[in-house]
Amino acid sequence: MLRKLSKILLTLALCYLLLALATPFSQTLRNRSISNQLTYLSNILDLGHDDELQNRFPEGKLFSNALLAVSTVEYYNKQEKAAKKYAKIVDNCILRLQSESALESFHANMIPAYGMFYNGWSNYVYATYKKSPLFEFSSVQELVISESKIIEERLLAAQSDSLRMMDSYIESNWPADNMMGIISLSNSELQEAWINFILQSTEHSSGLVHHSGSDPTEVRGSSSAMITYCMSVTEHPATKAYAGTLRSTFIDEYLGVQLVKEHVDGSGGMDADSGPILFGYGASATIMNIRTQARLGNPKSKATWAAMNLIGLPINIFGRKYYLLKKEPMLDLFMLWTSVAL
Questions:
Q1: What pTM, to 2 d.p., does this model score?
Q2: Taking a C-beta distance cutoff of 8 angstroms, is the pair 274, 283 a contact?
Q3: Which domain range does residue 15 map to?
């Protein structure tokens, strides 16, 4: 009896392992994974879990809603079903982005008003939505168009005299936040000029852009992966070379899985930007790099996503999928945002 039970448990474990690893390589499994994640994540954010994330992360409310919104839009572009359902998810996220509680963490008396994290991620949502066929089903079209226009004019005005690094908070800036603002713009001339300015501002010997304005000599894996992604979106001419430097500086490969160090030498502790770090490899850096490599056409992005999917201990039943026993929704959101890019 015990032997029979052991065989059953072993078979179930092997099936779980195979399904977790096969998900990004099977269109059916991947669609099921994304659809069930959208259902789970939209439900918990509708119930106010984004406010709990705000208590844990500096920009938790805005970031969680932005990630869910853009993931939903990008998935719909590939799976044109349930338009009204998906548009409602995005519309709800946008209304929360515009809520007073989402704005509390940001400052109106800045240039640009509310800072670059708010402007960059908010307008990235608006720009992505406006370009999507899903936008036809939105109930907040006028709000999206007007807010996007306000932010774009705000950024253009702030850079009209001379280019500069824009603050996310008063007297503190992060180049990656500037990059998100850049890719949300429709002005390609300003995009390239602003990126060139950021590339020239670093003092790190590799040429990779520094993590924060407080130390122009420090580069990090998470922000470097994000910046590389943003450069690829604008099709900046230096993208290929920059991606090569990212690879040689931060990425190690094991059996086709790309792990990304958060710090150049593999040391250093974790923080809100890095997420958990194990043996020097950062969760945020590794997952962000999946989306970056997918954008660059690297097939190893699927193998890396499969490995992270398994490590996250996914539960995918009853029309809902979540990781780590629902303890880390930000991981769920990042895994969703990367999966729609595969």
A1: 0.95
A2: yes
A3: 1-47+219-342
Q: Is residue 208 part of a domain?
A: no
The residues, any chain, with a CB within 8 Å of residue 316's CB and separated by 6 or more, are 32, 33, 36
Residues 153 and 227 in one domain: no
Domain boundary among 144, 167, 201: 201
Cβ–Cβ < 8 Å for 239, 225: no
Q: Say if 213 falls within a structural domain.
A: no
Q: Which of 167, 201, 235 is the last residue of a domain?
A: 201
Q: Which residue, 106, 92, 95, is CA-closest to 60?
A: 106
Reported as type and span, the H/E element at residue 252 is strand 251-254
* Sequential pLDDT tens for the chain (342 residues): 777 778 888 888 899 999 999 999 999 999 999 999 999 999 999 999 999 999 998 899 999 999 999 999 999 987 777 899 999 999 999 999 999 999 998 999 999 999 999 999 999 999 999 999 999 999 999 999 999 999 999 999 999 989 999 999 999 999 999 999 999 999 999 999 999 999 999 999 999 999 999 999 999 999 999 999 999 999 999 999 999 999 999 999 999 999 999 999 988 888 888 999 999 999 999 999 999 999 999 999 999 999 999 999 999 999 999 999 999 999 999 999 999 999
